Amino acid sequence: MLIDTYGRVATDLRVSLTDRCNLRCTYCMPEEGLQWLAKPDLLTDDEIVRMVRIAVTDLGVRHVRFTGGEPLLRPGLVGIVRRCAELEPRPKLSLTSNGIGLARTAQALREAGLDRINVSLDTLRPEVFKTLTRRDRHHDVIAGLAAASAAGLAPVKVNTVLMRGINDGEAPDLLRWVVRNDYELRFIEQMPLDAQHGWQRTDMVTAQEILTALGEQFTLTPEGESVRGSAPAERWLVDGGPARVGVIGSVTRPFCRACDRTRLTADGQVRDCLFARTETDLRTALRSGADDARMAELWRAAMWGKKAGSGLDDPAFLQPDRPMSAIGG
Prior knowledge:
twelve-stranded mixed beta sheet; alpha/beta
């Protein structure tokens, strides 16, 4: 198992397939983009599948989520999903995407073995989408969501970050639209993971503010702590259900005590926390001929020293050097 000194066991693996993205969201990266990882530094498809296999068969991982950057930009994505779906025991497979290109790939991903998907959508207004992402692709995301639903990638979850003064008034409209389309909405507090290091706590729309805004137009009934478990989202039934909405308060309502995640970056580094400032290099050992037992040993050691929490409440907190696009969501 991937256990740490606090007794937490990591059974959820986040695998970043690329640091590249076809959007330039203001809370993630500058308009001109970033210096991408060199292709030789990226894990190959075979290396990714091997690392997932070690995690599943030797280390007890049960859920694998592919992230980026934008994972749909990875040419071998469908093949990676198919090979991971053939592992025994079979892990649950999911994907986090911005939705651009999903209309073309949703069916192939489902047939390859993908179980479900999360799509980022911060606004229902195309002009606001363009302001937030610096790209005019709102229609592509909407089409991608519909394609994911039609392909059976259920539940289709929508991830939304509210930005003060930009889209913070859209929470009720977004929830109403998501419920009408039979998706499931997750609001996520803006986190200090932007490449510009411009995040300010005072600018962040908090979980409580989101719940207050929703509560003015909907009746929200909490599902309860026992239902949440290690899931990052606190969930509420909307107007008695069955529709639900979640809020991920990573900053103001952290879930570190129940965290069950381990992360593998696109260049083969293990991270024990989204906000960690250190990483463990597995790529070098992988390419130096280490066998599976040795790789598993290195991975266990990397997770053993995981800190009790993210440190966001510490006045001395420093953002990770890598932005979200390079870490993986």
